[in-house]
Amino acid sequence: MQLGFKPTISDPSLFTFTNFKFVLHILIYVDDILITGSSSQAIKNLITTLNNSFSLKDLGRLHYFLGIEAHWTPDGSLLLSQTKYIHQLLQKANVVNVNSQPSPMVSSPKLTADGSTIFQDPTLFRQVVGALQYLTFTRPDITFVVNKVSQYMHNP
Fold this sequence. Notes:
- By secondary structure, this protein is an alpha+beta fold.
- The chain has two domains: 6-60, no CATH class; 81-150, no CATH class.
- It is built from four helices and seven strands.
């Protein structure tokens, strides 16, 4: 903030700097920092300035950040995925070899907390549901089902 960055309303860990020449964005999560902007020279200057105050390691072009993989296409576009994260989650839930489905859940049945078998490992259920919530960043198609199962965290 001493350098003129302002926190965004939508995410308290995202800071922006805007002037008439360029825009810079810094996303900070604990000790991971992602810097981007409209001027590569301004980005380099910012990294130098930050490095004067903090020990930084510039990892170059984005490849992986907080479980999200970044793939650069030949035309310069950025494709985000969580393939590695999904595989780790499937292993944790012990469902690596299950068959995939085009839709994780039909919207018509009404789920209830009563009248069904209690999940054997409530801690695992909560961990998997929490991980699924994070997965909705790149898989918005599972948002509905994740919302539904999240309603039963108290009594899986």
